[in-house]
Design brief:
Elements (H helix, E strand, L loop, with lengths): L12 E7 L5 E6 L2 E3 L10 E7 L6 E6 L3 E6 L4 E5 L6 E5 L6 E5 L8 E6 L4 E4 L10 E4 L6 E5 L8 E6 L4 E4 L8 E2 L5 E4 L6 E5 L8 E6 L4 E4 L10 E4 L6 E5 L8 E6 L4 E4 L10 E4 L7 E6 L17 E3 L2
Length: 321
């Protein structure tokens, strides 16, 4: 599933590589700065044009698949996950009505799959494929009413399940998964962040390979987050979206920095931004589904025909100035 290419040298301007059948997103690094370059999706064996800014030392390039959006109907456990550059949606049932849905890479293979958190008793149900079936991993963590968080919180390439406790604005971060219906024990990291009523989310906001936490104030559209698992003020904050929007974070630009998308149920649309700055959406995605019980998710779902490429491909294409 990985795409490799021979080294290419260019001082500036344009060059091209040949890619096989698939749907890919291209991004590049100019010198030492990670800058969003462009999107390109092919559906056949074609020449892929790439622009090089020029100047500086060797810089890695990669063809990657960015995060896709999805919706989960919490009233019946119906999952609907989108595929890149198509109108197709992959649907399956998983979970019971009222379970809190999220996604993560539980088996460290680069694909994000369903998780469920039963807020009545702190029970976690994880599945290793985006298909209907029973949980592959089950355990307890947290207290009733906690909100689940999924991410790679220590940079080891594997996601785990942590929690946010709204009653005291406290994050409980743990770097392992439970098993055999047992409990996980104490969290590895505990810290307070945020204000009452704000909704938590997770992302790698500085592209260092470690997921950290953020909060979204749905009443105003305020987004703010930390770049480390420590107590303190926000490292960045901005307004994005309208009051009432629901926020998720993902690698929407294909460029490893995770940025926000908001789902607006009134018009059935995801509004996606490619940078962690205030401004209008860079693109949007309209869904056919509507209703108050639909909950947004985002991830690299690895679905058939979506051109999935491992995020470990970042060093397979090189250019030198």
């Amino acid at each position: 599933d990985q795409l490799s290419a021979e080294a290419i040298t260019s001082t500036s301007g344009d060059f091209s590589i040949t890619v096989p059948v698939g749907e890919y997103q291209v991004s590049y690094v100019d010198c030492e700065w990670w800058d969003y370059a462009a999107e390109w999706y092919g559906t056949d064996t074609e020449i892929l044009p790439v622009t090089v800014a020029g100047g500086g030392a060797d810089a890695p390039m990669a063809l990657t698949t960015g995060s896709m959006t999805g919706l989960v109907d919490m009233s019946q456990g119906l999952w609907a996950l989108s595929r890149p550059r198509t109108e197709w949606v992959h649907e399956f049932y998983y979970g019971n009505p009222g379970d809190y849905p999220f996604v993560g890479d539980w088996d460290c293979n680069g694909v994000e799959t369903p998780g469920l958190y039963r807020q009545s008793d702190g029970y976690v149900y994880l599945r290793n494929s985006n298909t209907q079936g029973v949980a592959d991993i089950r355990f307890f963590f947290g207290n009733p009413g906690d909100v689940p968080l999924a991410g790679d919180f220590n940079g080891d390439g594997c996601d785990t399940v942590s929690i946010y406790r709204p009653s005291n604005q406290t994050f409980y971060i743990i770097n392992k998964l439970g098993e055999n219906d047992g409990g996980l024990g104490a969290a590895d990291l505990v810290y307070v962040f945020g204000n009452p009523g704000d909704k938590p989310f997770v992302g790698d906001f500085d592209a260092d390979g470690v997921d950290t936490v953020g909060l979204h104030r749905e009443t105003t559209g305020l987004v703010y987050f930390r770049n480390s698992h420590t107590q303190g003020n926000a490292d960045n904050q901005y307004i994005f979206g309208d009051p009432g929007d629901k926020l998720v974070a993902g690698n929407f630009s294909g460029f490893w920095v995770e940025t926000p998308a908001v789902y607006r149920s009134s018009d059935r649309t995801f509004y996606i931004r490619h940078t962690n700055t205030q401004g209008n959406a860079d693109r949007w995605q309209l869904w056919d589904f509507t209703g108050p019980s639909w909950h947004p998710v985002a991830g690299v779902f690895g679905l058939p025909s979506d051109g999935f490429l491992s995020m470990d491909t970042r060093n397979q294409i090189q250019r030198s100035d």
